[in-house]
Amino acid sequence: MAQALLPVFSAFLLGLTLVSAYVEELDDKFNDFRKSEPWLVEFYAPWCEFCKTFEPIWYEVGAELKSLGSPVTVGKIDTTVYTNVATEYAIRGYPAIILLKGEKSYEYKGPRTKDGILEFTNRVAGPVVRSLTSAQLFQHATSRHDLFFLYIGGRSPLKGLYYKVAADFIIHNYFFSAPEDVLPKSVTLQEVPAVAVFKDGTYYVYNEEHDGNLSAWVDQERFRCYFQMDSFTLYQMGDRTKLVALTVLEEKNPSADSIRYKSLMEKVATEYRDHYKTDFQFGYMHGNDYINGFIMGELEIPSLIVMNMTIDGYYLPESKIETTEELLQFLSSVLDGQSQLLGGNGFLRRIKRMCYRLLTTIKTSYASAPFVTCFLFSLPLGLVLIIIWGMCTAVPVDDDSGEGALLAAGIRPEVKQRKGSAQKTIEAKKDD
Ligand SMILES: *[C@@H]1O[C@H](CO)[C@@H](O)[C@H](O)[C@H]1NC(C)=O
Ligand SMILES: *[C@@H]1O[C@H](CO)[C@@H](O)[C@H](O)[C@H]1NC(C)=O
Predict the structure, then answer these.
(1) From the CA of 392, how far away is ligand 1's center (Å)?
(2) Which of 25, 175, 251, 428 lies at 20 to 30 Å from 342 by C-alpha?
């Protein structure tokens, strides 16, 4: 038995060594040679627990890119030693993942998964605009991507502009170009050259007169009409000019009520697309952990909520929504200011949020190193905490995943709160 296991075990060890061999440990001399080839770099800190959990994933990314023959070299750099590098790239949370290509740098903001990072790397490291030279390639793009932008036509000033905009948005989406005869008959264009977005089983053509400049239009169209959001997507909405209208439903096995809410919102999102496309981004989310942290309370499931991610504000319907009309009414009450804005990032709110983060940080480090944490934090922080606790009436925070370390580094998506512990009602929130 033991003998049979031996080769397996050594293969495992060998595998580990080989895998880590594809990630280079960098120092500050890195800047001298980084422009010669594309680099994918993890900026980490040795104290960051989440960086440690993330390490095997990073090694896998390195090994996979190598085996795919990617031109991208993978590295990592200790920002506590090379602080000047961290400053140069304005690193604010760990682990930060940045793709460096020529003069430009692109930060990855999605989930810390191998597939997510590989997809991002292949998209951003490749050509900014990829050409589709045949009908088959066009079909292929349609089947592979839920959403992509397409320039149709030959040389033109619009094409130059399209390339510029693509370079800014490649971090989020795919950009292609194609001659007109590659398109299927179902795509009809008033004029060529044109730019279109393909999504939600259809396509929309950019019209300069109606849509303003190309960059603003791409920014407006770069999400599907209605899709599943996670904390990372929501976080990205912070720098957008749209409110987020969200259905919040169960993590697993949605109830009949949840399904009804989900399709009600979807119906409004698709049927009223033209009416609402500048004001709302529609989506749904499984589980209420993130939202609970956001509103610092307990959101009932299922729920409909509208969020202003720029100011951490939100709106809730005053009564249960049953019909399309009621949902439309709620949305217009938000737009015309009839619905009350809750939350926000006023002074008190910010203090309260800080308490939340502090508590999460301590909780996270306690989970990974209980004795050290107790020893380090208990005396001085115990006192401070009691004071803060009283001031904020904040509830304890539970973090059941490693994501909490991002929070420790000041990144917002993982705001979490213990399920069921918040007895405060939404009504109570209105007071602050
Ligand atoms: C495009 O329009 C947006 C707002 O409508 C504006 O902020 C941006 O500067 C414009 N960009 C260009 C290149 O004109
Ligand atoms: C969010 O709130 C701020 C402040 O009230 C407002 O200026 C901004 O327009 C709102 N965002 C959206 C997308 O409505």
Answers:
(1) 41
(2) 251
